[in-house]
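User: My instructor asked us to take a sequence, write out its structure as C-alpha cells, and then describe one feature of it. I'm not sure where to start. Here is the sequence I was given:
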Amino acid sequence: MNNDETTNLPIPPGAPADAGDAAGVDDSGAPPEESRVVFASQWKLMWWRFRKHKLALIGGVIMFIFYIVAAFCEFFAPYDPSTRDVTHILAPPQTIRFVDEDGRFHLRPFVYGYRMEIDSETWRRLYTPDTEDRRPIVFFPRGEPYKLWNLIPMERRLFGLEHGRAYLMGTDQLGRDVLSRTIYGSRISLTIGLIGVLLTFVIGILLGGIAGYFGGITDNVIQRIIEVLICIPHLPLWMALSAALPGHWSALRIYFGITVILSFLGWTGLARVVRGKFLALREEDFVVAARLCGTHETSIIFRHMVPSFLSHIIASATLAVPGMILGETALSFLGIGLRPPVVSWGVLLQQAQNFQVLAMAPWLMYPGLFVIIVVLAFNVLGDGLRDAADPYSD
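Assistant: Let's start with the prediction itself. The C-alpha cells for your sequence are:
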C-alpha cells in the first residue's frame, strides 16, 4: 500500500477524532488519527464504535451490576429467601427515609416499623407506619449465618437493621422478604440465559459450519431439519417438553432440563447465519491456503473461519439471552418450568396469577419489573454490539 492509498483510507465512524500518535504513523505527513485507524486491530475498531453508543454502554453497566448481584446474592440479600415472618404476612414495602415526622434530617437512612390492625369486616391485615419505631439502616451488619456459593461461611450482609427486620419490597403470603427472594431469583434467571445461549451457540455453530463448509447432501439434510423446527410453534413445544420432565427430579436436574429445552429450538437461526458465512468464506484465499497445507477441516472451521466473524457471533449471543430469560419466566409462570423451592423470577411471578392476592399486594409484581429492565438492557447492549461488529458501516 503506497502513501496516497494510506492517506485516503476512510475513517470508521467509531474512531476518535483526537487519536494521538500510533505505531503506524509514517513520515508522509498523514494525520495521526488516520494512521491509527489503518493499524488498529478489529477489536479496537469495535470498541471505538461501541463507546459511541451511549445506550449500549448504559445497558452494559446495568447488566454488569445485575450479574455481580446474582453472583453474590447471598451477600446482597438481607435475609434468607425461605425465612418466614408470620407476624408480617403480605406487609407492604417500607420507605427508606432521611427526614422523620418532626422534620429532622438524619444522615443515616431509616425505616419506620409497622403498626398492624385487622379489618373487622374483611379480616384483612392493614399495615401503617409506626412513627414511634424508627429503625436505622446499617451496612455490613452481622446476620443469619450463610455460605457464599455454598462454600464460604459468612455472617455479614450488605445492609440490615440494628434491631428488627426491614422489608423494602414487602413480604409475600408466607411472610418471606420479596427483595431477598428477588435477589436470589436473579441467579437462576440470569444464569439460565447464559447457559442456554452457550448450548445454542455450540449446536448452531457446529451444524451451521458443517452445512456451509461441506455443502451437498449434508447441507440439504441440515437445512430440512432447520425448516421443520422453525415451523413448530415454540411455546407449545416448550410446554410439552417441560411437562414431560419427571416430577421426582431434583431442582438441579429440572434446572438443566429447562435449559436444554430452551436451547432445543434456539439454534436454528444462528445455524443459518453461520452457514451463509461459511459459504462466503470457504473459497477465500486463507481458507484455500489452510486446506492446501493439509490442515484438518475441524481446525479450519474453528481456528480460521469462525474467528473471522466472531464479533457477529458475540452480538447475536447478547441478543439471544433475553429470549432465554423470557422463556424460563414464561414456563415457570405457567407452572411447568422451575418449581419451588427453586427461586427464580418466573417462580416468583406465579403468585401474580391470583388477582385477589395481586389486588391486595401489588408489590408481588416487582420481579416482573426486573425482568423488563434486564431484557431492555440486553437488547440495547446487543444493538450496540451489533453496530460495533461492523465498524466500517455508516
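For the description part of your assignment, you could build on this observation: The CA atoms of residues 74 and 148 lie 6 Å apart. Try explaining in your own words what that tells you about the chain.
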